């Protein structure tokens, strides 16, 4: 890390925080990608792969897209199952002292894409959260573009798969227990063309999920939401809400109908 330029140090630090994403890093009029991201994206989007001097013995692989046309490239990557973290310049480069301040303003995933031009107007774009406990599957499903938000709980794999088929989500997030439960995830991914990701345990804390739901829906008790009998469902709902807060980095007050 100490060998590379200050700008590349910041890039690598940001990439470390978004390991599972392609990092679109704003440099002037372009979003640039480096190293493995650049190699993969250049092949997938048929972009020219170049290089950048960054203090290492060899130039860092690099490719980029114009910022004004970035949405079309992002949509192509997301439609192929990738996640894209957008790291934006937060100050005018002409006014900056030292390197320009940059930060990730949004993460675009298959289930959180809000670009209507890339979505099918005839159907919803659902993201689904699944929590597996000892004898229950908690399920929370929402569409960021419409604000629809549903929660339920089932006690059998067949019923779970019925719920998955009913909503046909483009992205599924889950706890580690579900990921390791023995369900054929590859068949699920292939049938739905969906991305399935196991999140860290912190997303599924019972207390934090309940607190987040109370704050979001402005209630003192979850009884008013009609989900108090769904223990696993409540955790699934809180987990997907936390995931959306962290990826969208904006208010989600329009999510209703839980």
Top keywords for this entry?
single chain, 258 residues, alpha/beta, 6-stranded mixed beta sheet, 5-stranded mixed beta sheet, 8 helices, 11 strands, elongated
Topology record:
Elements: H1 6-17, E1 22-27, E2 30-34, H2 35-44, E3 50-52, E4 60-66, H3 70-79, E5 84-89, E6 102-108, E7 127-132, E8 137-142, E9 149-154, H4 157-167, E10 171-174, H5 176-179, H6 185-192, E11 195-198, H7 206-217, H8 231-248
Parallel strand pairs: 1-5, 7-10, 10-11
Antiparallel strand pairs: 1-2, 2-4, 3-4, 5-6, 7-8, 8-9
Kindly state the percentage of residues in helix.
Answer: 25-40%
Backbone shape: elongated
Q: State the helix count.
A: 8
Topology as a string of helices (H) and strands (E): HEEHEEHEEEEEHEHHEHH
Low-confidence spans: none
Give the biggest beta sheet: 6 strands, mixed
**Can you count the beta strands?**
11
Mean pLDDT: 91
| Strand numbers in spatial order across the main sheet | 3-4-2-1-5-6
Structural class given helices, strands, pairing? Answer: alpha/beta
Structural summary, described in words:
- The protein is of the alpha/beta class and 258 residues long.
- It contains eight helices and eleven strands.
- β8 and β9 form a beta hairpin.
- α7 packs across α8.
- The protein is elongated.
- It starts with 5 loop residues before the first helix and ends in a 10-residue tail after the last helix.
- The mean pLDDT is 91.
């Amino acid at each position: 890390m100490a060998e590379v330029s200050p700008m590349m140090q910041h890039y690598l630090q940001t990439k470390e925080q978004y390991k599972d994403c392609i990092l679109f890093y704003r440099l002037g009029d372009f979003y640039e990608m480096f190293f493995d991201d650049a190699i993969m994206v250049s092949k997938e989007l048929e972009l020219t792969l170049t290089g950048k001097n960054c203090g290492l013995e060899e130039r860092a692989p690099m490719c980029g897209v114009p910022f004004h046309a970035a949405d079309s490239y992002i949509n192509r990557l997301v439609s192929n199952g990738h996640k894209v973290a957008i790291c934006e310049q937060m100050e005018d480069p002409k006014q900056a002292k030292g390197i320009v301040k940059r930060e990730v303003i949004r993460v675009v995933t298959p289930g959180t894409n809000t670009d209507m031009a890339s979505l099918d107007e005839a159907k919803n774009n659902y993201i689904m959260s699944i929590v597996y406990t000892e004898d229950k599957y908690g399920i929370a499903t929402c569409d960021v573009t419409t604000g629809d938000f549903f929660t339920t709980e089932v006690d059998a794999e067949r019923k779970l798969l019925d719920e998955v088929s009913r909503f046909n989500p483009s992205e599924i997030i889950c706890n580690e227990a579900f990921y390791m439960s023995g369900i054929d995830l590859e068949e699920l991914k292939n049938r739905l063309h969906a991305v399935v990701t196991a999140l860290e345990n912190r997303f599924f804390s019972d207390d934090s999920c309940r607190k987040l739901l109370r704050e979001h829906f402005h209630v003192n008790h979850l009884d008013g939401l009609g989900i108090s009998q769904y223990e696993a469902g409540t955790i699934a709902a809180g987990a997907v809400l936390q995931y959306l807060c962290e990826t969208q980095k904006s208010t989600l007050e329009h999510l209703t109908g839980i």
